[in-house]
Amino acid sequence: MAFITLNQHKLRENFNHLNDLFSSYNIEWSIVAKVFCGNKKYLNELIQLGIRQICDSRIDNLETIKSIKPDIETVFIKPPAKRNVARIVKFADISFNTEYETIKMLSVEAVKQDKIHKIVIMLELGELREGVMREQFVDFYAKVFRLPNIKVVGIGTNLTCMYGVLPNHDKLIQLCLYKQLIEAKFNKVIPYISGGASVTVPLIYKDLLPAGINHFRIGETLFLGTDVYHSRSFEHMHNDVFKLYAEIIELNEKPAIPSGELGQNLAGQTMSFQDTLQGTLSCRAIVDIGLLDVEDGHIRPVNRDMQIVGASSDMIVVDLGPNITGLKVGSLIEFEMDYMGLLRIMNSAYVDKRIDEGTFFYPGEAFEASTLLSVN
């Protein structure tokens, strides 16, 4: 079985770096843990870092977090589905909202459960995903403030995730101004301006973050050390907290291009090949992971002499190049992942999840040599 590892030491170093950064600017932050897909041992590693607040977009995962540490503050970070309202109130201390009718249902349920449910109201700032339109924002708040057992604790926005609209000083200033407007008009205090995400971190370094932005939601930068704004890695953070290992299950020298009439493959693609490859051979390894587990465009071998040349539902084919390290059947190939690759891998029940406590793998090492702790 292919497996993924989480390096405890590197995760803590990334966490400490971000925690120091946010503390120096009086910013509160929450870890977006959806990439763990509810894996209890990985979540336990996260909670042990000492974070006060964890976000997720799946209520099942928030329930798991509460089962590990009931007093941690949980945040549901997408507009709730009405059928999940009871569980949202039970397992999420805070939820992000954009629909008044849904908030009314949260209010009724909060009264029923004898709880105060906190909400952050999301504002549309151009990404065109979730968010109340700006011209409706004041009236929206006016109605919400009248609902029992609902406490508005923040104004927030989402940028970059769908269309790639980048945060900038002007957009975030708008968010701050709307918060000031709501507080002045309704004589209320709104504690959070949740305008920060991984993509917003570089604005801190450039002194472009408005002082009012006091809450960040961080996933990718913590786990992959990514400067999302510039699509690169931060030099002072680890980008290999997670590693993916797949075992070679076949290794043969084969022609570099297929023979026969080509139709569509499993993914609906019609492949084409360079004529210069005709008659050449390739040292090809098949590994025990496939499109069912991850899209091949979101992972790549750490060894740059290797290249993914094909994939099907359960197998990926890797050209080993000269194979100077002498890989053989049973050897492991190490892959790195981007954020979507990590998310898909973690969501696969067919990839083992392990804790890396300092074990190292060497070229040609067989799967059986692993001493990593399985957490499935």
Could you give the topology of this structure?
Blueprint: E1 3-7, H1 8-24, E2 28-32, H2 40-47, E3 53-56, H3 59-68, E4 73-76, H4 85-91, E5 94-97, H5 100-112, E6 117-122, H6 137-144, E7 150-156, H7 169-186, E8 192-194, E9 196-197, H8 201-205, E10 215-218, H9 220-224, E11 226-227, E12 232-233, E13 242-255, E14 281-287, E15 299-301, E16 307-311, E17 316-319, E18 332-337, H10 339-347, E19 352-356, E20 373-374
Parallel strand pairs: 1-19, 2-3, 2-10, 3-4, 4-5, 5-6, 6-7, 7-8, 9-10
Antiparallel strand pairs: 1-13, 11-12, 13-14, 13-18, 14-17, 15-18, 16-17, 19-20
Helix pairs in contact: 4-5, 6-7
Structure description:
The protein is α/β, with parallel strands linked by helices. The protein folds into two domains: 7-229, TIM Barrel (Alpha-Beta Barrel); 242-374, Lyase, Ornithine Decarboxylase, Chain A, domain 1, CATH 2.40.37. The chain contains ten helices and 20 strands. It has helices at 8-24, 40-47, 59-68, 85-91, 100-112, 137-144, 169-186, 201-205, 220-224, 339-347, and strands at residues 3-7, 28-32, 53-56, 73-76, 94-97, 117-122, 150-156, 192-194, 196-197, 215-218, 226-227, 232-233, 242-255, 281-287, 299-301, 307-311, 316-319, 332-337, 352-356, 373-374. The strands form three sheets. Strands 1, 13, 14, 15, 16, 17, 18, 19 and 20 form a nine-stranded mixed sheet that branches. The protein has a nine-stranded parallel sheet with strand order 8-7-6-5-4-3-2-10-9. Strands 11-12 form a two-stranded antiparallel sheet. α4 packs across α5 and α6 packs across α7. The protein is elongated and about 75 Å long. Residues 360-374 have low confidence and may be disordered. Residues 8-224 form the Alanine racemase N-terminal domain. InterPro entries: Ala_racemase, Ala_racemase_N, PLP-binding_barrel.
